[in-house]
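quick one, 288 residues, struct below
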Amino acid sequence: MTQTQAATALYDIPGPRTRKRHFVYGIVSTAVIIALAGWIVYQLFETQQFTSAKWTPFEYKGIQELLLRGLGNTLKAFACAAVLSLALGAVLAVGRLSEHRAVRWLATLVVEFFRAMPVLVMIFFIFVALKVQPLPALVAGLTLYNGSVLAEVFRTGINSVERGQREAAYALGMRKTQVMTFVLAPQAVRAMLPTIISQLVVALKDTSLGYLITYEEFLHAGKLIASNLDYDLPFIPVVMVISPIYIGMCMLLSWFATWVAKRERRSPKTEAVEVAPAEPGTVLPGVH
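---
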C-alpha cells in the first residue's frame, strides 16, 4: 500500500471533477473573505477612524504608561486566578472522586452551583455585598467559576484512564493517593491539557470584567482613552490596539500548551525504553 493510499484509507480519493469543484469553492471563499475585509477597511476610512486626531493619544508617554499598567494588572489578575482555579479544580475533583458519599455530594453541590452562576454576578456579589477590594473580588469570582469547570475536566480526564491501570496499581499494593498521584494523574494530564488551556484562555478574557468594578485592568485603561473627548472619542483605534494584544496573549497560552505537550512526549519518563534482546539463561540441572 502506498503512502497516499494509506493516508486516504477511510475515504475515497477525490476525482478530477471533485478536485475542480473544490478549487472553485476555494476561489469563491477567498474572494468573499477579501471582499468582506475590503468592505470593513472601507467603512473604517469612511467613518474617519484613521485620522491623526484619533491616533495621537498613543504617542503620549502617559497614555502608554496607562496601557502598560492596565496590561500588568490584567496579567496579575489572570496569574492569581489561574493558579487558584487549578488548585480549586484539583481539590473539587478529588472530592467528586471520593469514596465517601458526604464528601462526594458536597463537592458535587459546590461544582454545580458555581459552574451555573454567571461570573459577573459572582464578581459583583463579592465586590458589593462582601465589600471586597476590586482585585480580590475579580480573582475570587474567576476562581470559583473556572475552578468548578476545571474540576469536571480533571474528573473526566482521570476517569478516562483505562480501568486496568488502576486495578494493576492497587494489585501492587499502592494506596489510593499513590495511585492518583503516580498512575492516573500523569496519564490524564496529557488528555486534559488542551481543555485546561482553553479554560485558562476563558479566564484571561474574563479578566476584562474587572473594569465593571473599577479594577484598573487593560480594558479599563482602553475605556478611559476611548471616552476622551479631547481625542474625538477614539473607540475604534483603542479596539484595534487592545484586541491584537488579547489575541496575542491567548495564542501565547496555546503555544505554551503545545510546547509542554511536546516536552512531555520527549521526557525520559514517557519515552519508550529499549529492551535488551533475550539471552540464553542458566540451564537448570536435569534439563537438556
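The radius of gyration is 27 Å.
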